[in-house]
Every structure is written in C-alpha cells, then in structure tokens.
Amino acid sequence: xxxxxxxxxxxxxxxxxxxxxxxxxxxxxxxxxxxxxxxxxxxxxxxxxxxxxxxxxxxxxxxxxxxxxxxxxxxxxxxxxxxxxxxxxxxxxxxxxxxxxxxxxxxxxxxxxxxxxxxxxxxxxxxxxxxxxxxxxxxxxxxxxxxxxxxxxxxxxxxxxxxxxxxxxxxxxxxxxxxxxxxxxxxxxxxxxxxxxxxxxxxxxxxxxxxxxxxxxxxxxxxxxxxxxxxxxxxxxxxxxxxxxxxxxxxxxxxxxxxxxxxxxxxxxxxxxxxxxxxxxxxxxxxxxxxxxxxxxxxxxxxxxxxxxxxxxxxxxxxxxxxxxxxxxxxxxxxxxxxxxxxxxxxxxxxxxxxxxxxxxxxxxxxxxxxxxxxxxxxxxxxxxxxxxxxxxxxxxxxxxxxxxxxxxxxxxxxxxxxxxxxxxxxxxxxxxxxxxxxxxxxxxxxxxxxxxxxxxxxxxxxxxxxxxxxxxxxxxxxxxxxxxxxxxxxxxxxxxxxxxxxxxxxxxxxxxxxxxxxxxxxxxxxxxxxxxxxxxxxxxxxxxxxxxxxxxxxxxxxxxxxxxxxxxx
Length: 570
Prior knowledge:
With 570 residues, the protein is an alpha/beta fold. It folds into three domains: 14-126 and 269-341, D-Maltodextrin-Binding Protein, domain 2; 130-258, Periplasmic binding protein-like II (D-Maltodextrin-Binding Protein, domain 2); 367-569, Rossmann fold (3-Layer(aba) Sandwich), CATH 3.40.50.410. It contains 20 helices and 20 strands. Helix 19 (530-537) links the parallel strand 18 (518-524) and strand 19. Helix 4 (104-113) crosses helix 14, helix 15 (392-406) crosses helix 20 (554-563) and helix 17 packs parallel to helix 18. The protein is globular and about 80 Å long.
C-alpha cells in the first residue's frame, strides 16, 4: 500500500479576501495523484489569493497528494465494495470533494462495482501517453530511433529474445500497467493461438512485476557497465511523465520513450466531483475547474512533464527523444458512456473489457482455488446460432478448456456436473475433486469432455449450489481466493430438492467472514432467471451473477467474472 503524503493545504490570505468582496469560507478538498498534485495546488492557491468566491463566499482549497489505487480503495470501502487487487485503504485516507486520479479507468472500475458511485464532470485536465521505456543502449539494439516498435513487435521480442527483460506494474493497482496489458491483448488478437500468446506474455511480465511504477523504474540500469545493462530491466510500459521525471535527474543511462502503435489509452487525469458534494462545493469545484483550463495551468503541467488534454504541452516540458509534438487528444467523459458498463474510457473500452484483462492477469498470476460446477441438464443441448449452431454444452466445453489453459500452476481446480438424479436422488456428481494444477492438469483437461447433457435431465440448482459452497468452505485455504463458479442455462427445477428459503438460510449459516468463499454464477443464454440467481448470491461475500445472453461470448464473461468482485449482465 502506497504511503499517502498530504500536501500542506494553504488558506493563506483569508483575512485579505474580505477586502476583495467575499466573506465566510467554503473549504474545497482535492485529492490528486502525485505527479499532478503540485500543479493543481499552484493554480488553486493563486486563485484563492486573487479572491476565489462563490456568490460572495470565500473559497479555500486544500490539495492532497494521494496515490490513485489508495483513493480508489477508500471510495470502494465507502460504498461497501472492493476492487480486485487494490486492498483496503488506511483509515486516515478520507474521500475528498474532488478526485483527480491518473486515469479514467479507475472511475470505470468503481462505477462497475459500486452503482451508487456517480461522480460529475470527470473530464480530463491533462494527459500523459503510455510509452515503452528502454535504456538508451537497449533501444539502440532493437533499432531505435529508425525502427518503429509496435505492440505486436514487443510481443514477438518477449517470446524470442533471450536477453530482453520486460517488466510491468501490477495492472490491478496501476493504470499504466492496465493500459499496456490491454494494448498487448489487442495486439495478440483472438483465437486459441492468441490465447496462448497472451498467457505466455502475461507470465513473462508477471515474473518482473512491481506494485508501483516507482519501484519498477528503479530496476533500470544504474551504470554503463555492460553486465549491469544486460541484467537490469530492459523494457517496461510506463507514462511519458515517468520518463521525463527519470531523465531529469540525469542518470548515467537515460531512458528512451518509444511510442508503440496503435496508441493505448493514455493517463488522462479526470476531474471527478464526488457524489453528494453539496451545491456550494459543486460550484466551487466548477470555479477551480475553470482555472485548470488556463495557460498558467498548461505551463505548470509542462514543467511537471505532463501534456494538456489536447496533447500539446506548455513551457518547461522536457520532451523525451523521439516524442511527438502532440499526442492524440483526450476528451472523454466516463459518465457519458454505455450505462450498463459504467461508461467508456479514453480508448473506447468499457468496464467489462477492463475486467476481462484483469481477470486474465489474476488467473495467470494469483493463487486460487475454484470448484467449477457445470450444468448438464437436457436444455444444454440447445443450439447456439452465433456459434455455428454448436450446442450450449459444446460452447461451455470450449470456454472451460480456454479457462483451464489460462490458470497457472498456482491454482487448484475441481469439477462437478449437475442436473437431476446424477447419483441417486442427488443432483450433482463429482468428476475431479479440487486438485492442484501442478499435478492434476491432464486429469482436469480430460474431465471437460464429460460436460455432456443428460437426456431428460432437469436443473437441480439449489441443492448443488449449497453443497458446492459447503465443499469449498470445508476445504478453505488461507492466502488464496476460494471460489465456486457455477455455469447454468436454466432455473431450479428439482421437485425433490430444497426450497429457496432453505438454501438462503443454509448459505448464511455456512458463511464465515474470516473464511470468505466467493460464489459466482454464470448464466448461459436467455432462459435463466437472473433475479433468482441474484437472490442466491446476495448473501455471500463478493459474489456475482454474470449472464452471457449470447452463449458464444461465454469465454469473455468467464474471464470478466474472475476480474471483478460483483456481477454484471452481458
């Protein structure tokens, strides 16, 4: 967890303000990520000293330097949710009136997990492109400055080079790392071969992942010694501002900023006015927002190594070698995107796309235990027109195989099948108990072939959910995400089974906050009863319902479910 450093808020000049036609006090609090906080504070205090007011009431502004992941954790905690990989914020971190994170992706992630989080404005006040930073000698070896390096070329180098060490900041905690991972995923494309490429790339990056960009950058070579250069970090996606800041210290080995195409979503520093801020403070925030559109602020950004939202830069900007005169403009508002997904980020990505990327990262890099439970009722024979008329069962087998390929050796996986009367009156059958993939991968791969619909079988949903939840609870292990992921295309149809009231009371009885079990239900097709599924997971910790109305997209929904902490329809 990053240490929160609070800048001294200045209320200097309050007595003098009364002479400029304002009285009283509106105190506006602003939390901003470290690289932009001083620029905001500089302009804010100048505005205050010049008589900032709202209808005659004086405005004072306190600007605090708060890491974006830390503030996102604080906001999530206020809304009783968690973001994957972010953790819990220190109690001392308070939600401000205005938050300037380093990226709109934080706003998107929070809105997707906490529907009550609806900030206003949220338009960018600066930007910093995502670049591939390389020590100058390493960049020269790959053809810089004459050769253009794209994300696809980077993927190839990662798979073929024996000397290039690549690193990344954990995308669950860092927007630059997330943007780069999205770009690499897009460069890999789609299909089974692309999936294997993504797994290889993420595994390689994870070996040299850092929690913070500052930690990552410290791993670049610190001397011109050839051995130091070869054994140090050779390439990492960071922001342009990171390169400017690093080179400002005149290190013995400067960094070169490569601008891979296509351009990934940059850091775009949205100015987000928090929900429930009163009207006076909203107007004060609007007044400060106006000041941040000035030439003074543009120059302050330039001196800090940042660009304006239009991609140009002010005086004092130390442009890295090979940097463009202007980068593509950012003008998004995350509040104006597709409502179900919580908005659209700068590169046109929605929250579900981000969750899929984070889900891939979590599956490949984080340890976990999951009991995968598959519906094999007769309705799973239904054909899926968008999947070349394959059955729902066939589409499910394909999604399961892709998911298993993605899970690292750190995971343990079990497989159950359910319908009705699978073992006597019991509606489910264990195919493989929860088994470490390091020793049981081949057995689990073979089990996927048994996801075959039972002729005339109905859906024994309630009993299966309860027994699966109890099993993971019974075998719970610390230090891992313990989950049940259940796939179904229907609703409970087991006349011999328990009722919903019994299921809910038993789930509550078997829930231990100290040993959380995440219950995820993935609905397949348009015949599922989403309200029924939501009722089931509501009382379990961090549970979620994800509905793949088009079963052909179930693989995407599955990865999204791993990357999020609450449910979504798709």
